Amino acid sequence: xxxxxxxxxxxxxxxxxxxxxxxxxxxxxxxxxxxxxxxxxxxxxxxxxxxxxxxxxxxxxxxxxxxxxxxxxxxxxxxxxxxxxxxxxxxxxxxxxxxxxxxxxxxxxxxxxxxxxxxxxxxxxxxxxxxxxxxxxxxxxxxxxxxxxxxxxxxxxxxxxxxxxxxxxxxxxxxxxxxxxxxxxxxxxxxxxxxxxxxxxxxxxxxxxxxxxxxxxxxxxxxxxxxxxxxxxxxxxxxxxxxxxxxxxxxxxxxxxxxxxxxxxxxxxxxxxxxxxxxxxxxxxxxxxxxxxxxxxxxxxxxxxxxxxxxxxxxxxxxxxxxxxxxxxxxxxxxxxxxxxxxxxxxxxxxxxxxxxxxxxxxxxxxxxxxxxxxxxxxxxxxxxxxxxxxxxxxxxxxxxxxxxxxxxxxxxxxxxxxxxxxxxxxxxxxxxxxxxxxxxxxxxxxxxxxxxxxxxxxxxxxxxxxxxxxxxxxxxxxxxxxxxxxxxxxxxxxxxxxxxxxxxxxxxxxxxxxxxxxxxxxxxxxxxxxxxxxxxxxxxxxx
Amino acid sequence: xxxxxxxxxxxxxxxxxxxxxxxxxxxxxxxxxxxxxxxxxxxxxxxxxxxxxxxxxxxxxxxxxxxxxxxxxxxxxxxxxxxxxxxxxxxxxxxxxxxxxxxxxxxxxxxxxxxxxxxxxxxxxxxxxxxxxxxxxxxxxxxxxxxxxxxxxxxxxxxxxxxxxxxxxxxxxxxxxxxxxxxxxxxxxxxxxxxxxxxxxxxxxxxxxxxxxxxxxxxxxxxxxxxxxxxxxxxxxxxxxxxxxxxxxxxxxxxxxxxxxxxxxxxxxxxxxxxxxxxxxxxxxxxxxxxxxxxxxxxxxxxxxxxxxxxxxxxxxxxxxxxxxxxxxxxxxxxxxxxxxxxxxxxxxxxxxxxxxxxxxxxxxxxxxxxxxxxxxxxxxxxxxxxxxxxxxxxxxxxxxxxxxxxxxxxxxxxxxxxxxxxxxxxxxxxxxxxxxxxxxxxxxxxxxxxxxxxxxxxxxxxxxxxxxxxxxxxxxxxxxxxxxxxxxxxxxxxxxxxxxxxxxxxxxxxxxxxxxxxxxxxxxxxxxxxxxxxxxxxxxxxxxxxxxxxxxxxxxxxxxxxxxxxxxxxxxxxxxxxxxxxxxxxxxxxxxxxxxxxxxxxxxxxxxxxxxxxxxxxxxxxxxxxxxxxxxxxxxxxxxxxxxxxxxxxxxxxxxxxxxxxxxxxxxxxxxxxxxxxxxxxxxxxxxxxxxxxxxxxxxxxxxxxxxxxxxxxxxxxxxxxxxxxxxxxxxxxxxxxxxxxxxxxxxxxxxxxxxxxxxxxxxxxxxxxxxxxxxxxxxxxxxxxxxxxxxxxxxxxxxxxxxxxxxxxxxxxxxxxxxxxxxxxxxxxxxxxxxxxxxxxxxxxxxxxxxxxxxxxxxxxxxxxxxxxxxxxxx
Lengths: 544, 877
What we know:
A: about 550 residues; alpha/beta; Leucine Aminopeptidase, subunit E, domain 1; 13 helices; elongated; B: about 900 residues; Transferase(Phosphotransferase), domain 1; Helicase, Ruva Protein, domain 3; Cyclin A, domain 1; five-stranded parallel β-sheet; four-stranded antiparallel β-sheet; Kinase-like_dom_sf (chain B); TBC domain-containing protein kinase-like protein (chain B); Rab-GAP_TBC_sf (chain B)
């Protein structure tokens, strides 16, 4: 963009860059040297330069402006796109948006909930409510499972009779029709129950919200009463229904976690400025972080303290996340951790967020399809030159599949210790069998992207499967475990070092989960291995 | 200074974030926009003009949010319009002059206001003085490339601005690497003339030109003017707003200004007058540059600051005597923070920041390449240019409660003795507090602030006092200047710096610098910004260009970083500080062949380790972990490569008061903290330990190094290549003088000079004996030689009888003496058989005896002094 202009001072001339980047005094000294002028000329030269630059900069600016404006004047350029561009820009300013959206229902509710949970003993009431609702759902689910089981049994018997009929009395068509009929019956039963459950959940959700809003209003009113009267009048507008149950926050029996092993480390990272992280190595079932373990003993409901903690921090800026490894298909499939996770979610109502199915289908509809078509376009434009662009074989089926390294995010309020779940897409079988995965494996990129998301969205505690698998198989020998651990930890360390540049809220607690059927001995070996990669700081010596 | 209605204000906006994982041309991740903005903001702090609101500070919130603190006034031209005031010609003229003065000033500073509007022109309480605010937004946002909102109010923007921005943004996106290259400012100063014209028109009419019409109207009107073949847009604008027949146009005020407004609203920029031309047309006095007043512009610039640099003549008239009100606005802000001011909380309460819960903002889907889907636009990040006033009432109350001793530190004694006593008591109470407490103590910092402000203003007159006070601590707000004073910088640093021709530097060196800078203290906001990189580069280039005998070694960048950080707006002072610092502490370390200097330094360092921690020295020697393996970056950067900036500041606060050997003591102090770990570690663990050095408690490190400095005889740190060698050498036989490096290397303990022994043991007094002596003087000659002549108070332990062949001590008397004098310095005195002396000391160290040193040149140096005496047999064992 720069241009050079001739600067003349008495009988000396020099070409100078416009606009100039060095300071005028420096220019002046340079010219004094160059032209071997006496130093007393400095002020004069300086002034001459100042005037020169003032003038020339204005000339250049006028030229640039002219260049930008000319196409508009001459009509080579339409005015409308320009105005549209500016109209969009202006939308970024509050002043020019007259119809600012009013706060969403979700927002109002989150505020109210936060407020209610933190005032007085309201949390007991909410927990009680939660337990009652949860119980109701569980009863429903049990009935559903029982009926389906009975139906299955009956079908089985019927089918058995038909197939084992020695005289081939029933033709094949009949058997096929029977099977068809059984399936339809089962589906309709399931559908019936599922709609029962979901309508129960909807009702509960509605009731819960109403209750919270009511409590919120009460607390507002009582606050304002207190303020106006100055007296501590506890005028309850409507007393809560007396309940025979009382809420107790208690650490649950350890028997539940019989195979749980745990060690923790405090590590520092960074060359000059050090930042602290907590690492925890845990042997347990990853879904232990999700399952609610509320129990009833006599008239007491025993809540885990973690549960209350999770509720309390739901709308704050320190959230807990969990990584689950899932297959490419978003829809539910049987026999993997996803199904198990879905059944954990199903067991109680999420009062704050849409149900897992709703969230997943919205992800599939809104995001995955768009992402896949973007990816396709990108790859097409990349090899647009090559003739063999292979976008013919992309059926609609394919467009709903994720790639390895993608992840989708669901939000939950009805899990024990987790607010946000990252479903990281992996190719399970290849991850298991191959001994040699490198740091450039897409699953590890996914892990990095997850950490980055954590930083952006205030997830400060993240739980992840250290071995990139949720259960142990026979192929996973001790050397395999050690090698995999080393790889993942080293990558993790690199990502954590990067974290500083990603955002202001670091993900400072990282929980590394290993499958619960890992041998004790291997676990201890792992526990010894962690500090060789993440160096622990020396113990602090207190001085008195 | 603050006049009664001056206040601090804060406003906030959110920088746009980069698309996922982009890298710049140098292969490093892109700098976040917020960091770019913070870097560019710093220059705005140097803007000082009576008609411009001062910019004070910028802070980073979470999620790319930025908070800008500036001078703030409630009243604006907008309030005038709302009040329907009828304005006189004189009044408008007076304001116009002020506006033009400030615009000319900005132009000289190469800044474009770009967003001149009724709202951004503020007034002091009396309505007499115009104060323009928010003028820096265009500059700090890198011409709006770092934010998603437009800079400039469309109601006031000149037609070309719309087109310029459009082409500019296209250019940037096409270039797609706007972070690496310097972008030229596309703005034209004359665009402000248009805005100025509209404002004049609005003042004359007493209403907003476009009334309450939506924002699309001024935009399209303005742009469409370009297509119409008219010289001035005035008539079109009036007609568009059905004002062309308005009665108000016929008023005398309007009639007076209308011709000028017409010129301002010329559609083509080249037809519009410049600010200076406008000023003449409006009958203003010619522009004069304002006198710089703040420390950053006056200290070390050859400008002698007036007694109270904050006052000029007009200010004297409304001088306020309250202790609070006569502080500068920077000080007020600094104290406001110390008093617990929380910007985020203030803005939240004002409703300027609304934060929706994090969980409602998480994205839904992220691809393997990191592209994010399902993220909702957070309406809370929309731009709002309202600034909010910070309440200073609390602060003022605290000021009023403050005892007078705090407010008026005395520079010269001899006044009121009782007053001085009270002040001393106050000092004593606070002195015991840890540094972190002192630095955050409101009252104490206030006291120090005034004290140092005065000491600096009088520099170098009260230099001694400055040293004494700096020994207690240095107030962070004035650290840059205090350091400069401690480094004895004088004269006009700008002049010196500008004279350096920085362009004749070998390209290889430039490349090396360019590689090193983006890796130097990048956790810091200022140093990681492109502006910070630029400044680092300039200062380094300046240093290299002006030191032709020295070269750039990696590490110079780390050394430069603290100075650039502290003097971010003053490259010249950063350069001057660096230039004074290097010969003082790193004399000749940057020679092309620096091996001699570094080797000597490291050997002296290992002597010091043996002197203070013989056990550690023995251990490290056994496993072969020598200082060459870890300590070179320590000393070459004076620990600037080892510690984060905040720790370097405290460390160097102390360092700058010490001599050239102080870094050695710091090195020993660090090892002291790591001692237990090192004693257990093997070679590999040591290497790992030093490659990722554990956190060091810096306050303890400082305390330890002062102790070490105090307990080490001065001559023990003698280095032939030190710059302050004159401190060791008085051209006397009894002092240190150069000796072969091979000798130095073969010895494990330091040498002490005869003079220092004399000094410390009062050898000149006849009555000295073993009991009064501060040192344990061990004479290792044979008893015969000893009996002929010896130093008073020395003991004779003959070399032959002291150790067995496994280097165990066999002489009982020696054992007892060493036990008894465990913590005192042990000087081994030998004669010409130097090897014996060295062996003896090495054996003592091998037996873990600390503070062992040997007499430089042996007993013979004392021969001419007449201090030797003839011992009696009772002196022998």
